[in-house]
Every structure is written in C-alpha cells, then in structure tokens.
Design a protein that fits this description.
The protein is mostly beta strands. It contains no helices and eleven strands. 0% of the residues lie in helices and 51% in strands.
C-alpha cells in the first residue's frame, strides 16, 4: 500500500519561503508520477507541481518560477520548495502519486494516492 505523509507546512509572511516534504513508504516512485496539489474550502483542487520518474517537471502557471519540485532518490523524499510566497498561495497542500504516464499531468483524476494534507498560510 502506498503511504504518503506530508511535512513542513506552516505560516509565513508574504515574500517568504517554505519547504514541504513527503515521505513515501513501500513505494517504487520510479514507475510513477508524483507531485503536489492544493485546495481551499470551496475551491477545486489545483495541480501545483508534478515530477516524472525521469525528472521531467510540470508547474501550474501561478507558481512557475517560484516553486520547485524534486525527489531525493536515496531517502524517498518528494519535496516542494516554495519561495516568493503570496497570500493567494494559502491552501492545504497534498502530496500525490499516480500510475506511470508518458507525461505527468496536473489533473487530479490522474492521481490515486493522496496524503492527508498540510496547511500553508501566507499573511500579507
């Protein structure tokens, strides 16, 4: 069973940085798409950043240039480094994993494993 556990959420002022991490247990990420989504109450889930087994990444336009997704192959840790944070980045962030695809998408329906979420609050 794939288990995903996010860490690193918290509160930060606008312009600041946060790093989220996701520990993947008993999971062979080499065959999957992984990434991060976010959602607030009353809003649809938004794909933030995804990474394929070959390291190809894809970002939402709203975070391009500010967020970086990566995988630590040795420790099985998926990370999301967020900088130049804005109040509109306030959301619950979810670590996700899905089956292999030729191109990893930002469509939530492509991901069948989700963590419990970690909250990020950016104050103005």
């Amino acid at each position: 069973k794939v288990q995903l556990e996010e860490r690193g959420g918290g509160s930060v002022e606008a312009g600041g940085s946060l790093k989220l991490s996701c520990e993947v247990a008993k999971y062979r990420y080499s065959s999957r798409c992984m990434g991060w989504f976010r959602q607030s109450l009353g809003k649809e889930r938004e794909g933030v950043a995804v990474i394929a087994a070959d390291g190809v990444t894809r970002y939402a336009d709203s975070v391009e240039g500010r967020f970086t997704v990566s995988i630590d192959n040795g420790d099985n840790i998926l990370s999301l480094e967020m900088s130049s944070l804005k109040p509109e980045d306030t959301d619950t962030y979810y670590c996700v994993a899905g089956p292999w695809r030729p191109v990893c998408s930002l469509d939530s329906s492509d991901y069948n494993y989700w963590g419990q979420g970690t909250q990020v609050i950016v104050s103005s």
